[in-house]
Amino acid sequence: MQKKNFLWIKKTDHTLQFWPKQSSEINLTQSTKPEDIKRKWKNKIKIPPKTKIDYLKQRGIIESAITNHAAGFYQNRDNENFAFIIITYNGTANIEYNGKLHKLKTNSIMIAPQGSSFIIKNKGKWNFLWLHLKSKFWEAYLGKELRIIENSEIVNDIKSIVEVYINNVYRPNCNGNILNNLAETLFTLLKNEIGKPCENDIEKNLKKFFVEFSNNPKIETTTKSIAKKFKITLYEINKASKNITGHSFSKSILNMRIQIAKSALQNGKNVREASYIAGFPDRYTFSKIFKRVTNISPSSI
Predict the structure, then answer these.
(1) Could you give the CA distance from residue 137 to residue 60 in angstroms, rounded to a whole number?
(2) Considering only CA atoms, which of 114, 31, 16 is closest in space to residue 73?
(3) Cβ neighbours, 10 Å, residue 105
(4) CB 225 within 8 A of CB 213
(5) pLDDT averaged over 10-residue windows placed end to end, the chain, 301 residues
(6) What are phi and psi of 151, to 5 degrees?
(7) Are 286 and 262 in contact (CB under 8 A)?
(8) DSSP per-residue string spanning 47-111
């Protein structure tokens, strides 16, 4: 690769980047790019005036920009000391990590925790927002492995917020209150989106909970309370439950209570004892539900 074919080549102990000459960038924050690059390509790399308070940095966003890359961009990152998010606005790029090739598509969000290693290439135009994050500030939301959220519903909202942020931060006398509110909204949207467990994690957590419940059926088990515990929606918990048991969460819990009670009755417990062991509120409620579900009376077992 010849240097003259690129706008910028970056080489450090942790990263290697090749920027095509047609690339451009609008920064939301002060840039850490070399001063000679910033001066030479100031028409392509826009940097806002310094503000008294960096409202994004207050929320653990070290650096951020909207970047447009033409075909031929290349990035190899290895064991960086910050986390990395890429939100694709338009176009696609290929990312290789853990020996597998994936695509960063329109409306996808890539989350790479500190220390991640990956290679990104693009064959066509690619427009995206990137953020370097202070890991300690975001560790509750990042997870431990690089992952991609596809078809995220918040990308258009992110684009709108970032556009307004840029319009304000580039003004000579920008309004700090506006920037602060926009930074907080951006932070909240991102942490809520990337903090959601993926479907596999939800099912994994739910399976663990079902085991915990079978050992202690007196723990709180309303659909709402468990969804809140796992930071997921009612739809997500019911979907995961149906994938595991074929039933909604509440129906799965009820069936487990019935099986626990039936096992207690078969092991010599009386109806009152079995209802208590299975976590039913009283003998009458237990008998009524047991008969409705199994078509037999618990006293007949």
Answers:
(1) 5
(2) 16
(3) 14
(4) no
(5) 70 91 94 84 92 93 96 94 96 95 96 95 96 89 88 96 97 93 96 79 90 91 90 87 95 96 94 94 93 92 83
(6) 50, 45
(7) no
(8) -PPP-SS-TTGGGTEEEEEEEEE-TT-EEEEES-SSEEEEEEEEE-EEEEETTEEEEE-TT-EEE
Distance, in Å, from the CA atom of 158 to the CA atom of 179, rounded to the nearest integer, reads: 14
> Would you call 128 helix, strand, or coil by DSSP?
strand
Q: Cα separation of 20 and 12, whole Å?
A: 18
Contact (CB, 8 A) for 222 and 231: no
Which amino acid type is present at position 76? N
pTM for the predicted model, two decimal places: 0.68
Antiparallel, parallel or unpaired: β 6-11 and 15-20: antiparallel
pLDDT of residue 41: 85
d(CA 129, CA 9): 20
Amino acid code (one letter) for 265: L
Closest CA to 126 of 79, 75, 90, 83: 90
- The backbone region for 64, taken as left when phi is positive above 0, alpha when psi lies in -120 to 50, beta otherwise, is beta
Give 187's contacts (C-beta < 8 A, 6+ positions apart). 59, 60, 61
Q: Provide the token pair at 246.
A: 């074929």
